[in-house]
Amino acid sequence: MIKRGTVKEQLAVDSVSRKMAGLCPLMPEEVGLLLQAVGYPPTTIIFLAGSETFGGQRMLIPLRAMFANLVDRTSLCSQRELFDLVGPEDPRTPDLPQPPPPKSEKQLIEEWRRAGPRPRPLPPPPARPFYAHEKEGWYGWIGENDTEPDASLIEFRRQAHQLLWDALDYFVSVEADAFFPGFHNDGSGWPDYSSLVMGHRLYQTPSGITYRPDRGKNVTDISGRNKHNSYANCKIIKVTGLSSSIL
Question: Domain range for residue 152?
């Protein structure tokens, strides 16, 4: 990747120092501790918006233990409602490589008889199937091609679906009673999802609660806490740099 010029930055990154400097998103457990420290009860309904959480659903276990009413668009919307949002589409086969069709017992016996003299080495085990997430994005083609291939119709449809889900999450985030961003203002100069929601809420409903956490200070305070008292005495955490847009 470096020789091809795909990656121009250093691959060796000190994740701990970047985390302490506030350059990494807040983890779901850290968000839950901050919300508890602010005073939200365990019965608060939390809508999880945005893209897939880094680490998968297992990273949401601590947050779900603090707030049982943790929902997202898949749990609030039925399959029919999501289908109505997308609209009618022509059925198309997926563009992922398909495994070979299974062979019958007769075909296996015939291949065994034609295999030659015995003993002979065992055939290699069949390759495992490809998962959808392994072929999405740039990491799906970087090891196979030198240039990015043209997107297929299935890829265009997948991107269109993702835009619809992001628009749905954006609408819910703007209309919510309070908004807590896990990550915003990355310093690149380009607007991100959370920054757009925060600006829209400030313009449309300036009286709404929109938190702007200082990730560097809050991560330092949370990392220094006693893990044995993380849930029982979570309200003693010193919340610093956490301002809300209550005007």
Answer: 17-88+147-244
